[in-house]
Structure formats: C-alpha cells, structure tokens
C-alpha cells in the first residue's frame, strides 16, 4: 500500500504551539522536557497495531521543513517576532528525540530532549495517531455521515441567526486538529463553516488552514506552558504568576487569554490579581462545570471593580454547538464570550472517537502535573509530586 503522509506541512498544527514556543525559545531555551502519549479510553482495536505506520509517519515528519510561504505567513502575524521566524527557517524536528513502541497492546510514544525541539511533536503525534486509526474504518460511510451532521450544524446556526442577539455576539472557532478524523475532513469542515456561517464562525486553531482558507488563526497558551514553570527552579507556589508575567512581557498586550485550570480555577484566581486581570483580555475554560467557572470569573472581575463587558470568557471543554449556544444564552448579556469546539466539529462521523493526549510530564528532570477541575483530566506521572502540588495549592485529594 502506498505511503500517504498525514502531515505534509509543519503549519498543520495549532497556533498555540507557536505562541508557547516563542517565549520558551526567548527565555528558557536550555529547558529539557519529557512528553508522554496517553490514550484515556478503550479503542476499537489495540493502538499497538499502528506502530509500524506511526514510525513511518514520524520518519516523514522529521524530514519536513518550514517553507518560504509558511515563514511569510507566520512573520505577518503581529505577535510573532522576526528572530523566531529566523529560528524556524533552520528548524527541523529530530527523529532521535521521539520514540514509539508497542507494549501489551498499548502504543507508547515519548518525546524527550530540549523543549524547543520536542514541544512541536504533540499535535503532530495526535493527528497522526487519529488519522491512522480511522483509516481502518469505512471512509465512504463515515464521510457521508459526517457531511449529514455538518449540514445539521449549519441548519442549527441558520435557525439561531434568526433569534435576537444578546449584548455580545455569539462567536465560535475550530479547535479540532488533535482529534480530527483526517486533515482533509478538517479542511472541508472549516471551509463549509466559513462560507455558511461567517457571522458566527471566526477562525481555526489550525495555522495551515487559516492561511489557505483566509480565516483567522486562533490560540494563546496551553497547559504545557504553565507546567513548564513547575520545573524552572521557581518556588512552586509562584509558578503561575511567573508564567503569566513572562507571557505579558513577551506579548505586551497581544494573545491575552489566560488558561485557568493547570491547578484549578480557585488557585488560579488567587494568583490572578488586579495587575493580571487588567493586562489579560480574558480567561479560557477547559475543565469543570462551565457555568460555575464563568460565575467565578465574573465574581472575580466584580470584586476587582473591572467591567466584565470589557473582558472575554472562552469555553473549550468538550463543546458542541448546542452546549455553546446554551452557555452563550447564560453569559452573553454580561461578558464577551467565545467557544472553541474540537472533536464535535472535526470528528463527528458516528465513529467512537479516541481520547488521546500527549502531555508534558517532566521539566528539567522534575515532575510536573496538571490538577484539573475535572478529575478525569488530572495528569501526572509522579504521584508523590502530585500530592505535594495538591498540598501547596490546598486542593483536596
């Protein structure tokens, strides 16, 4: 069977990989890191069966380079600096830094090395595993069902458009690179939504598709950025403040949506004082009850005497359009809102999806962890460190 690459461009990834990459390159280029692939649910067949194909895809991935037009597009983004573009001009993923093996039916993938060389692997690995996995199912029936469901989404948006708007507009974006059915299907979804609902659909996290389809690339920071600071020699209690401060210094007003659940919303708000609340445009929800989270955010802004109408709440946890519309109706008269929808846009094909992640587990040889507001999303490779993190931030076990 002929080799068909899953990734053909190094732009075929989330914008936030670049926006996190740049400050790490500028401020912590020596940081060593360890990323680990995890499948959280039961696949239809053992992922270990994909090992040979995964390795072939990784071989191909590590031969790719940024093309002239890729660099031109990135350099045209206001927040991307010219020295970072120059770094990308000579950048190439190193095959020695990533390893895939099979163990007891499980697929194990680890990336270890300088963080500026291994952090880009995450989204590529997830897209590769997903697309290889779904290639084994009947494509014709999956695509037929996917298109039927996509048209249902378009019809829902058309019906919603006839309703009176709230104080702030309803806006959503595609966040579906990592768990997509395929690259081609994601392209079709983004093109369809761009054309059918331009008043609501405001962009995609996929940088390649944003460039090719003329939409806005969307994204700021992910958990790995904040987790990295747990291993930088900073007092653990201060890692969030340090991460946010460096972000402010790097972007000076751009990319102002902060992620809140690396150690839970309550601990985040304890660090998110008036200084940060004024400097950041808003907050992103990624775990826990979204209504409770949003109410906490609004109460925090109120306590700081900040007009919530000047801020933005972005929801991105396991959303579909009906959930997004429900949240919009709850919050849309009080604060700007946005909705990042992933799997339900790019892999809604009637096939059971994979719940896969590739997360940072060590920074400079020290364990790091995420204490999510959703218990199933807590991620740590070291139970002792996780217990210590809970103690430092006074979170229940």
Automatic annotation (TrEMBL):
Processing after translation: Transiently phosphorylated on a His residue during the reaction cycle. Phosphorylation strongly increases the affinity for substrates and increases the rate of nicotinate D-ribonucleotide production. Dephosphorylation regenerates the low-affinity form of the enzyme, leading to product release.
Keyword Phosphoprotein in the entry? The reply is yes
**Of which family is this protein a member?**
Belongs to the NAPRTase family.
Coding gene? Answer: pncB
What are its GO biological-process terms?
NAD+ biosynthetic process via the salvage pathway
Tell me the function of this protein: Catalyzes the synthesis of beta-nicotinate D-ribonucleotide from nicotinate and 5-phospho-D-ribose 1-phosphate at the expense of ATP.
Residues bearing Phosphohistidine are 223
- Which GO-annotated molecular functions does the record name? glycosyltransferase activity; nicotinate phosphoribosyltransferase activity
| Pathway(s) annotated for this protein in UniProt | Cofactor biosynthesis; NAD(+) biosynthesis; nicotinate D-ribonucleotide from nicotinate: step 1/1
Which residues are in the Nicotinate phosphoribosyltransferase N-terminal domain?
A: 11-130
What's its EC? 6.3.4.21
Name the GO cellular-component terms.
cytosol
| NCBIfam families in alphabetical order | NAPRTase, PRK05321.1
Q: PANTHER family of this UniProt entry?
A: NICOTINATE PHOSPHORIBOSYLTRANSFERASE
Q: Which domain of life is it from?
A: Bacteria
Q: Which keywords accompany this UniProt record? A: Glycosyltransferase, Ligase, Phosphoprotein, Pyridine nucleotide biosynthesis, Transferase
* Nicotinate/nicotinamide phosphoribosyltransferase domain: residues covered: 170-396
Catalyses which reaction(s): 5-phospho-alpha-D-ribose 1-diphosphate + nicotinate + ATP + H2O = nicotinate beta-D-ribonucleotide + ADP + phosphate + diphosphate
Q: What's the protein here called?
A: Nicotinate phosphoribosyltransferase
Name of one Pfam family that matches: NAPRTase_N
Gene3D superfamilies registered for this protein in UniProt: nicotinate phosphoribosyltransferase
């Amino acid at each position: 069977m002929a080799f068909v690459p899953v990734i053909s461009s190094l732009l075929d990834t989330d914008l936030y990989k670049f926006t996190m990459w740049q400050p790490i390159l500028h401020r912590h280029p020596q940081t060593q890191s360890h990323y680990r692939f995890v499948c959280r649910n039961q696949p239809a067949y053992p992922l270990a069966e994909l090992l040979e194909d995964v390795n072939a895809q990784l071989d191909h991935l590590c031969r790719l380079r940024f093309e002239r037009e890729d660099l031109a597009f990135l350099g045209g983004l206001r927040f991307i600096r010219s020295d970072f573009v120059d770094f990308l001009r000579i950048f190439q993923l190193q095959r020695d830094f990533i390893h895939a093996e099979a163990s007891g039916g499980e697929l194990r993938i680890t990336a270890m090395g300088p963080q500026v060389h291994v952090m880009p692997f995450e989204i590529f690995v997830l897209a590769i595993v997903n697309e290889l996995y779904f290639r084994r199912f009947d494509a014709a029936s999956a695509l037929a069902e996917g298109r039927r469901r996509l048209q249902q989404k378009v019809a829902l948006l058309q019906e919603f458009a006839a309703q009176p708007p709230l104080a702030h507009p309803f806006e959503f974006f595609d966040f579906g690179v990592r768990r997509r059915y395929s690259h081609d299907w994601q392209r079709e979804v983004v093109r369809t939504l761009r054309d059918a609902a331009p008043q609501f659909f405001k962009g995609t996290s996929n940088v390649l598709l944003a460039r090719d389809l003329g939409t806005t690339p969307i994204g700021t920071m992910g958990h790995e950025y904040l987790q990295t600071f747990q291993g930088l020699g900073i007092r653990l209690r201060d890692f969030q403040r340090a991460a946010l401060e460096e972000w402010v210094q790097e972007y000076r007003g751009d990319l102002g949506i902060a992620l809140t659940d690396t150690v839970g919303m309550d601990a985040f708000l304890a660090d998110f004082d008036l200084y940060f609340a004024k400097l950041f445009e808003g907050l992103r929800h990624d775990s826990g009850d979204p209504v409770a989270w949003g109410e906490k955010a609004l109460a925090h802004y109120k306590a700081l005497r900040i007009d919530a109408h000047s801020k933005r709440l972005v929801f991105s946890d396991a959303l579909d359009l009906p959930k997004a519309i429900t949240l919009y109706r709850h919050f849309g008269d009080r604060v700007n809102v946005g909705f990042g929808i992933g799997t339900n846009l790019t892999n809604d094909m009637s096939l059971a999806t994979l719940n896969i992640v590739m997360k940072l587990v060590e920074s400079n040889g020290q364990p790091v962890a995420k204490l999510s507001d959703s218990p199933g999303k807590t991620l740590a490779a070291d139970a002792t460190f996780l217990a210590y993190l809970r103690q430092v931030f006074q979170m229940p076990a």
